[in-house]
């Protein structure tokens, strides 16, 4: 399927930073616009005044798409939202009106960090859930000390790096998947935790390098 694109001119309603695009489907099924299939939220049904005739489509879902870059905007600033899709996926770019060219090429954003290949969007959202992470940190604070030797048994878990950041003497992570292991290793390097963390492929590698200790599992 050939790529298709559309452009929408917008005006910002407030100061802020644009990070995501919230999208849903409205399908007009007849020429008179009387038969409409919609998965729009109840507060966003512009195609008809009779909202009662639009049933909830629980097999369709609204979607959130992350913009390739955050865009700071000011109230009443003119913006251009460009949407594109191919046979498999959508992607979006947001521009300030004075920085946008109609013949500009908005390439499909390709992940270079590995995280977006290793984890789905739901998992990435969970990893960035501040309330969820606070609960994990609160529990770890009760048990992790400067003498702690910790073991994290999970693919792509942040519990190991969290324990190291809280001051654990040594943290061993068993991660059997190459994609998630690569992400965790990059996370360790970015946070300068190389001297306190070891990432291994399997339990056999662990047995070769350490003696028995108390474990923190993740």
From TrEMBL:
* Superkingdom of this protein's organism: Eukaryota
Q: Which residues cross the membrane?
A: none
InterPro entries in alphabetical order: PRMT_dom, SAM-dependent_MTases_sf
What range(s) does the Protein arginine N-methyltransferase domain occupy? 13-82
Q: Does the keyword Magnesium apply?
A: no
UniProt keywords, alphabetically: S-adenosyl-L-methionine
The question of whether S-adenosyl-L-methionine is a record keyword is answered with yes
Designated name of the protein: Protein arginine N-methyltransferase domain-containing protein
Q: Which organism is it from?
A: Cryptotermes secundus
The organism's taxonomy opens as: Eukaryota, Metazoa, Ecdysozoa, Arthropoda, Hexapoda
